[in-house]
Each structure stands twice: as structure tokens, then as C-alpha cells.
Specification:
The complex is a heterodimer of chains A (106) and B (884). Chain A has 106 residues and is α+β, with helices and mostly antiparallel strands. Chain A is built from 4 helices and 3 strands. In chain B, 53% of the residues lie in helices and 15% in strands. The chains are: A alpha+beta (106), B alpha+beta (884).
Chain lengths: 106, 884
């Protein structure tokens, strides 16, 4: 299933909320948690990571991966946390609005 | 915000490390994905393949990451420019031709716009120049021609108007500065408020004050240029008396360096008057029918020109009510904005030249666009390839635009340099009427214009190929190897361009032919005198209207000049034809003619010595010239021109008729009844192209007037006589200065200057247009031929001869040219009525000029078609088909 326009940021921020991760880890995590509904391809993932980093919501640092490769690990910054909270609220408001609309009787 | 700026900073200064980071991150991520496949038991090679599939190309991912970054837009633009620059350097001949063509177009436009701006658009150098207006009177006698007024009228306007903040008067005479180097210069007599009305203050000292009116305290103001050249800019002289022939005069101030007079040419107030004095007598108490004061007025703030005109209509009505003579003259006023009046006669010519330059630029742009289009279709395969490997169309368009931009940047810089050189060249051949451009040059408005033109061209050039690239079908063009596109795009566009160029060139060539014909017509006008082999110079004898020396001295000089070797005859006049000395014209009253229009006749007056007509070569039609008997105290006589004789006494001889004419007597004007003794041909006193007013000649000794202009008819080069004449005058009076020492041809050349200026520029423009049009046709056809060589090969293989192919290409070129010429003829005919103001002696639809263009343009087109056609004909069919 395609990722909804504008929700990739939210997915990445949410994935990073629990622990710092590298790019492939983030993609795996999203795929795993959504039971394979969302598959994030590198072509969308890396531009999004750079964009979020430029906005100051996440911070990338070089570290060692589980298989001992050099990997860039991303952490959620303080403004990133705030942004995540904000985007969550927006998301809930939007989904409830969508639900009302879809479930309303003729 | 700061963070973004920080990233921008980081982007540009740490771009390398960012790129490296990205590289490494992507590489390690890629390896992780491979690792994962390997862990699942996939063989390494297959694992790498699957990972690559997942990544959809590392380069594309990188490109998308870069696109998303702050600052990347700027970076990409720089990259585009660098890329464009490299591309242009790879094709030097294409680039050089484009840049030179562009520089030519922009340069010509910059040069012409510099003149256009300096003369027509730049505000006059006075305070709030839009409030200034020229004020002239109309008198029944002068027809509708606006004329100067009397001091009495100026006084009445001052008293009665409600719309003017001030009105000032000026009259230009001459005076001699005495001393080591006596020098005769124009001196303007003005009302003391003259500079206040113009809003010009003195750079040093002051301008005039009320107490200096009417010779109350003799005072003088000099221009900066004259103050420097004659008095070495010595400011200690301010407040001191200057040595003058007329009277001791105090120098009270010096004007700013940029000061110039900007009166309309027909007012005979020249731009370069070096010295100003207040009128030395009370003009308001002068004679009511001597019209000599030129007026400039400043409107009250908030008053429009229209409102001021209404106000002056009322003032004129009041004056007519108060003075019966002005009522009889049906006095009215005309008022024109000072700036529009100053440029009225030169505006049509300059506008036409500006339009011509713009047309030329259009041709240049078309040529460059055609080159770029050809190049774009050559690069079709390259573009398709780049689209295929992932470049976005927007990026491609941006790169094409960048290429146009680089071309225009280079062309613009070259054009501005060329424009500057062109402007210097125009300055060198400019007519005197364009004196105003003297202090102009490359300034901000001109530069802004050049930049705007270059930018406009850049967008145009980039856009045409860019739009075409949108239509590009990637697979189709990769397969066709870049061919095929030509059929649709370039043949259609190329044909339109050729037609457009020929059309424009046709209009320019007819314009040039018309101006050249006009010039030759004006050159062949009989002005009523013979300008060749005539030396002229002017002498002034003091302040007053009457010369302050015995008349016998002048007679004596004439005899001495005539005795010089190389001199055939000598004469003198108060006003040389085509001179810029303020005109002398007044009413005359033919006696014995009954009717109520007695006061409605006006003529130019000149007093002349007996030898004048013979020296000037003005033919006698009836009666006799003046002789030595026509002296003061003798019977008052006069000579009229054929215009006056015909209009006053139609069908009769004018000889023996009586006229009450104006004489100068004791420094003032007075009517004297005189007998007509001769009729001469009309002399074009004011313009070679206009018979303005009839003429009355009075014997100098019956009406002596200063200054006096001498004419020497010579057998030798006129200027060779100057030292001998100077010596004769010096022996008489070392303080006497010769002014305006010129051959008479110079006056004629000055009159011809605007026409020859236009003709020279029009000729240059049309020559360039023809050259560019030929180059344009050559470019388009040559390109098409090179794309169509396979077609030609097939044709020849099927039996067409070289001659047939030659004819085919030539025919196509000439058909386009013929279409262009037809359109051009139509366009030129439509523009014809608008050219009416610029031509003289020929119709704006002159068949000769059109015929010239109709002959010339096909010849030029042929020139452009020839080489492509012979190239096509020389093609070797076997070779071409093999290459296919």
C-alpha cells in the first residue's frame, strides 16, 4: 500500500520515538509494525531523513551497526518530540473526521 | 530561520562532506540490505541484484535527496550555468556567432537609446521642469506661426495672469569682450527674474536682482564654460567690472556647469549662449509693434498646462480690449511644455531611428533563436538520453534557459561596450539640434534598458527550444537518432523566421531609401543663394541696434576686402540666411491697397549693402539691385522677394509700388514709406525645406543695424582669406572681433545635418539588417540541408540531377524571401503615413524606394541561399545512403 502523502514524516518520527535507529532499521521497523502494509523504499526514505534533519527534528550521528558496519544513527531531538506530538494530534483529528464522514448515514 | 541559514551555510561550505556522508550512508545501507538477503540464503550476486532493485538506482536516490535540500536550488542554477558554459565552449563557432549577433543588436539599441533618452526622455536640467512652458504670441500678420511679443505684452501678461508663478523674457544679441583677445559672443538680454523662473541658481556669486532691471546697474552672468575659457575660472573677478565694448558691466555670478538653454529651435534662442545681462533699457515702455521677446513661464504649483492656456486666453482677450492695435492683430497666446517644444522637430526622426534599432534587434534575436533551435534539435538525442537516465524535464528546460542566459550575458556585456562605442560615434556625427546629448552617456536608465533587452532576449532564446523539448518523445527520438524532429519543428519555425527577417529588412531598406532620397532632395533645393565659395563672418559694433561707427568705415572695409586677391565680390547683411541670429520680422503696409487687412502682412526684414545680392548669388528677377546712391538721406527704396511681389500685387509689376516698411533709425524701429526698386528670388532664411515668409530688403545705409554679417565671394578656399581680413580690421580697431567665421556651406550643412544623420543611421541599420537577413537565411537553409542530405541522396539516387536539387533548395529559400518581401511591402505601406513627417520632396510611398527594396532583398536572399543549395547539389548520393 502506498504511503499517504505527508505521513512518511510522521511514520519516521514515530519509529524514532522509542530508540535511535539507522535508515534501513527505520524502514524495517515501519514495515514490521504495520505488518507489511507500508514498505518504505530508499528512494523516499533518504530524502525524507535529510529533510527532517535539516528541519532539526532528528539528528544523525555515525555509529556501528549490529553487524559491525558503519551506519548513520538518527535520534529524535527535542523539537522532534514536540513535532511528533503535534503531528499525532493532527492525525487523530483527521482520522476521526474521516471516520465521521465515511460512517455517517446518507 | 537561523537553522535554515545554518544549513544553507553548511550546504555551500561543507557540501563536500555532506555529499560524502550521503555516499557513505547509502553505500552502507545498500550493504545492509545485501547482508540481509545473504543471511536468508540468497547467493551474493543475486542478493546484490535484488538490493539494487530495491534501491531503484543509487544515483537517482542521491539526486532526490539533493533536490530536497535547502540551497540546492541555488547550487543547481550555478551548475546549470557551468554546464551551459561548457556546452557553449564546445561549439565555439556557434557561440561566437550568437554572441556577436546579440552584441550587435543590443549595442545598436543601447547607442540609439542613449541618444533617445538624452534628447527626448531625460528631464530638462531645471527645477521642476514639468512646470515650465514656452509662451509665444500669434498675430494675424504672422499667420498662425507663433511669434515673439513686445515688452508691453510681456508686462500685461505679468500683471493680468492668475496661473503663472512667473514669466520671463529673453532676446539674444551680440556683444564684444575687449582686451588682449577681443571676442564677440552671443549675449542674451533677459528680464532679471529669468533664472528664478527657470529655477537655476548661480554656482558662484548670484543671478540678477530687481535693481539691475533696465540698465539700473549693469550686471552680467556667465556660463561656466565661457568663464573658464575666457577668464580662466578666476573667481576673484566676481563682483568686478568686465571689459566690454558696450559699457562697463559687473560680473555678478557664474552659472552651474550643466546649464544650457533649451528653447524650441524656431524661437532662435540658441543653446550655447555664454553670457547674460538684464535688458539694458525699459522694455515695458518700448514700442508696441516690435515683437522680439521670447517668453518662458513657470506655472503655479498644481496648475495644469490646460488651465494655464485658458487663463492666457482670458489675458489675451483683456489685452485686445485694452489696446486697439493688438485687437487689430487679433493677439492670442500659445503655450507649450518647454520639454516637448524643445524636442518637437527632432522627435519623429529619433522615434523612427529607435524603431529601426528595435527592428534590427528583432532580426538579431531571430537569428540567434534559429541557431539555438538548430542546436537543440541536434542535441535531441542527448536530451532524450538524459531524460532516460533520470533527469527531470524541468531540469532540462532550466539548462536550456541557462544556455540562453549565458549567451545573453555575454551578448549583453559586448552590447553595452559596443553601445558605448556607437554612442561616441553618434556624438561625432550628431546634428547641432541634438546638442543635449553632449552631457549624456551611459547612465543608469540606459544601462537598465540594455539589461532589460538582454534579459528579454535570454528568456526568448531559452524558451523556444525549451518548449520544444517538452514535446520530445524519449524512445522515439532515441530510436530515430535525432532525425525526424526537424521535419516538424525546424522547417516550420525556420520558414517563419526567414519570412519575418525579410519582412523587417524590407521595411528598414525602404525607410533607408526614403531618407536617402529625402536627403538628396534637400541637397538639391535652391535656397536662393549659392553657398559654395563664400566666406562669412560677423562684426558687432556695440550694444545698440545701430552700429556705433561711421558708415563710411564699413564702405571702406568692403572696398578693402574686395581688393584682396582671390575675392570676387563683397557684401554685408544684418541677417545671414540659415543663421541663428534672432530673426527680424515685422508688419509692412503696401500703400494704395484698399481693404481691412492692411495690418495683416508680415515679412522678414534684412538690411543689406549694395554688393550683397551679387556676393551671395541671389538672382534679380526684376528691376535693379541697390547701388551706392541708396544712402541715408536719399530716396527710401527697398527690394522684395517674388513671394511678396506675387501675393501683394498679383499680375502686376512690383517695381515703383510703395510700401510702408520698418527701418532702424537711431537705435529704434520706425515705419518709413519706401519705393520698390527690385524683385529678387525668395531666400530660404529659416529652413531649406520651407518657404516661411516673404522678404523685404532695405539698403544698409538707410537703416543701419548691428551686428553685420559680411559675405565674400571667393575664387580660393574661403577660409584662406581670414588672416588678411583680420589684419585689415586690426589696423582699424584692435578691439574689433570677428565672430562666426565660416564658409556659407557650413550653414547649409548644419541644416542638412538632421536629414543626413537620419540617412546615415538608416543606411547603417538597413545594411546590417540585410547582412543579418542573409546570414539568417543561410543559417536556416544550411541547417535544413544538412538534415535533409539523406532525402537529397534518395532524390539523386532516383535520378534527380545536381541541378534539380540546387533548384529545389534555392526555390524553397526564394519562396520564403518572396513571401517576406510581400509582407514587408505591406508593412512599409502601412507605416508610410507615419513616415510623412520625415520625408521631403518624395512621397512616403515613393515607388523608387520600394523598387529598390524589391530588387535588393531577393538578391540578398539569393546570396544566403546559394551556398546551402550548392552544398546540397554537391552531395554524393552513394556516400549519404551508405551512412544511413
Amino acid at each position: 500500500m502506498d504511503i499517504l502523502q505527508g505521513t512518511l514524516d510522521l511514520l519516521i518520527l514515530r519509529a524514532l520515538e522509542l530508540a535511535p535507529m539507522h535508515g534501513i532499521g527505520i524502514a524495517d521497523r515501519i514495515q514490521q509494525v504495520t505488518h507489511g502494509t507500508f514498505v518504505v523504499k530508499p528512494g523516499s526514505l533518504f530524502p525524507a531523513l535529510r529533510r527532517l534533519e535539516q528541519k532539526g527534528w532528528i539528528d544523525g550521528k555515525w555509529g556501528a551497526s549490529e553487524s559491525n558496519r558503519r551506519a548513520r544513527y538518527y535520534t529524535l531531538t527535542r523539537t522532534g518530540h514536540a513535532q511528533l506530538a503535534q503531528e499525532k494530534r493532527n492525525w487523530y483529528r483527521m482520522t476521526s473526521a474521516m471516520n465521521w464522514m465515511l460512517e455517517s448515514e446518507g | 530561520m537561523f537553522r535554515r541559514l545554518g544549513y544553507l551555510f553548511e550546504y555551500f561550505f561543507r557540501r563536500r562532506s555532506i555529499e560524502e556522508d550521503l555516499d557513505e550512508e547509502l553505500r552502507s545501507s545498500f550493504e545492509m540490505v545485501v547482508d540481509r538477503f545473504v543471511e536468508r540464503g540468497v547467493p551474493l550476486a543475486e542478493a546484490r541484484r535484488r538490493a539494487r532493485l530495491e534501491f531503484e538506482g543509487l544515483e537517482q536516490v542521491k539526486e532526490r535527496v539533493r533536490d530536497g535540500l535547502v540551497g540546492s536550488a541555488l547550487h543547481t542554477s550555478l551548475q546549470d550555468l557551468r554546464y551551459a558554459w561548457r556546452g557553449l565552449r564546445r561549439r565555439p563557432s556557434f557561440s561566437i556567432i550568437s554572441v556577436v549577433t546579440l552584441a550587435l543588436g543590443i549595442g545598436v539599441n543601447t547607442a540609439v537609446f542613449s541618444v533617445f533618452y538624452a534628447v527626448l526622455l531625460r528631464p530638462l536640467p531645471y527645477a521642476k521642469p514639468e512646470q515650465l512652458a514656452l509662451l509665444l504670441g500669434t498675430f494675424r500678420g504672422a499667420g498662425t506661426a507663433p511669434a515673439p511679443v513686445s515688452g508691453v505684452i510681456l508686462g500685461e501678461i505679468e500683471r493680468r495672469n492668475r496661473s503663472l508663478a512667473g514669466v520671463a523674457g529673453i532676446w539674444v544679441g551680440t556683444e564684444t569682450f575687449t582686451g588682449e583677445n577681443p571676442e564677440q559672443v552671443r549675449v542674451a538680454q533677459v528680464t532679471p527674474n529669468f533664472f528664478d523662473v527657470l529655477g537655476v541658481g548661480a554656482a558662484h556669486g548670484r543671478t540678477f536682482i530687481k535693481e539691475e532691471e533696465a540698465g539700473g546697474r549693469p550686471a552680467m552672468v556667465l556660463t561656466d564654460g565661457f568663464f573658464r575659457s575666457r577668464f580662466a575660472g578666476n573667481r576673484n573677478l566676481i563682483g568686478k567690472g568686465l571689459h566690454m565694448r558696450g559699457a562697463a558691466t559687473t560680473l555678478v555670478g557664474v552659472l552651474p556647469a550643466e546649464f544650457q538653454l533649451h528653447f524650441a529651435p524656431e524661437t532662435n534662442v540658441p543653446a550655447g549662449v555664454p553670457a547674460f545681462v538684464p535688458f539694458p533699457y525699459n522694455i515695458y515702455a518700448g514700442r508696441r509693434d516690435v515683437y522680439f521677446i521670447r517668453m518662458v513661464a513657470r506655472l503655479k504649483p498644481g496648475v495644469s498646462l490646460r488651465e494655464a492656456r485658458w487663463d492666457l486666453d482670458r489675458v489675451a482677450a483683456e489685452i485686445r480690449g485694452a489696446y486697439t492695435d493688438y485687437a487689430a492683430e487679433n493677439l492670442h497666446f500659445t503655450m507649450t511644455g518647454m520639454q516637448s517644444a524643445a524636442v518637437r522637430d527632432i522627435r519623429p526622426a529619433l522615434t523612427a531611428l529607435f524603431a529601426g534599432a528595435a527592428f534590427l534587434l528583432l532580426i538579431c534575436c531571430v537569428n540567434v533563436t534559429s541557431l539555438l533551435l538548430a542546436r537543440a534539435s541536434d542535441r535531441r538525442k542527448e536530451i532524450a538520453l538524459r531524460l532516460a537516465i533520470g533527469a527531470s524535464r524541468v531540469r532540462i528546460v532550466r539548462q536550456l534557459l541557462a544556455e540562453g542566459g549565458v549567451l545573453c550575458l555575454l551578448g549583453g556585456v559586448g552590447g553595452i561596450a559596443l553601445g558605448w562605442a556607437g554612442f561616441r560615434a553618434l556624438m561625432a556625427i550628431r546634428p547641432e539640434r541634438l546638442a543635449r546629448i553632449g552631457d549624456a552617456g551611459l547612465n543608469w536608465p540606459v544601462l537598465a534598458f540594455a539589461v532589460a533587452v538582454s534579459l528579454g532576449a535570454a528568456v526568448l532564446f531559452g524558451l523556444a527550444p525549451a518548449l520544444e523539448s517538452f514535446k520530445l518523445d524519449v524512445t522515439e527520438s532515441l530510436r530515430a537518432g535525432g532525425r525526424g524532429w526537424i521535419g516538424a519543428l525546424h522547417r516550420r519555425a525556420g520558414g517563419a523566421m526567414v519570412i519575418g527577417e525579410i519582412t523587417i529588412a524590407f521595411v528598414l531598406v525602404t525607410g533607408a531609401a526614403l531618407t536617402a532620397r529625402t536627403l538628396s532632395k534637400i541637397e538639391r533645393v535652391n535656397p536662393g543663394f549659392e553657398p559654395r565659395q563664400r566666406l562669412t563672418f560677423q562684426l558687432a559694433f556695440g550694444w545698440t541696434l545701430s552700429p556705433a561707427i561711421p558708415l563710411s568705415t564699413i564702405r571702406n572695409w568692403e572696398a578693402q576686402f574686395a581688393a584682396l586677391p582671390g575675392v570676387e565680390s563683397v557684401g554685408a547683411t544684418s541677417h545671414l540666411p540659415l543663421g541663428d541670429f534672432p530673426n527680424w520680422y515685422s508688419p509692412y503696409r503696401p500703400e494704395g491697397i484698399v481693404g481691412n487687412d492692411l495690418s495683416t502682412r508680415i515679412a522678414d526684414y534684412r538690411c543689406v549693402t549694395p554688393g550683397y545680392f551679387a556676393a551671395m548669388g541671389t538672382r534679380l528677377l526684376e528691376g535693379r539691385y541697390f547701388d551706392q546712391q541708396d544712402r541715408a538721406g536719399g530716396r527710401p527704396v527697398l527690394i522684395v522677394d517674388d513671394l511678396l511681389a506675387r501675393s501683394t500685387w498679383p499680375g502686376q509689376s512690383a517695381i515703383g509700388k510703395k510700401i510702408e516698411a520698418e527701418h532702424v533709425i537711431d537705435g529704434g524701429f520706425a515705419p518709413v514709406s519706401s519705393i520698390v526698386v527690385g524683385v529678387v528670388e525668395h531666400v530660404r532664411n529659416h529652413s531649406l525645406t520651407k518657404e516661411l515668409r516673404s522678404e523685404i530688403y532695405i539698403p544698409f545705409e538707410q537703416s543701419p543695424r548691428s551686428p553685420l554679417s559680411f559675405v565674400l565671394r571667393t575664387r580660393v578656399e574661403p577660409l584662406l582669406l581670414v588672416p588678411a581680413i583680420r589684419e585689415i580690421l586690426r589696423r582699424h580697431d584692435p578691439d574689433l572681433a570677428m565672430a562666426k567665421v565660416r564658409p556659407m556651406t557650413e550653414y547649409v550643412a548644419r541644416e542638412l545635418a538632421p536629414a543626413s544623420f537620419t540617412a546615415v543611421l538608416a543606411a547603417i541599420f538597413s545594411a546590417l539588417a540585410l547582412l543579418l537577413a542573409a546570414a539568417g537565411i543561410y543559417g536556416v537553409l544550411n541547417y535544413q540541408v544538412s538534415r535533409r542530405l539523406p532525402e537529397m541522396g534518395v532524390r539523386m539516387a532516383l535520378g534527380a540531377g545536381a541541378r534539380d536539387v540546387f533548384r529545389l533548395v534555392l526555390g524553397e529559400g526564394l519562396t520564403l524571401a518572396a513571401a517576406g518581401a510581400l509582407l514587408g511591402a505591406g508593412a512599409a505601406l502601412m507605416a508610410a503615413h507615419w513616415l510623412g513627417a520625415l520625408v521631403y520632396g518624395v512621397s512616403p510611398r515613393d515607388p523608387l524606394s520600394y523598387g529598390f527594396a524589391l530588387l535588393l532583398l531577393p538578391a540578398v536572399a539569393l546570396l544566403g541561399c546559394w551556398r546551402p543549395a550548392s552544398r546540397a547539389a554537391a552531395a554524393d548520393p552513394a556516400k549519404i545512403i551508405r551512412e544511413e
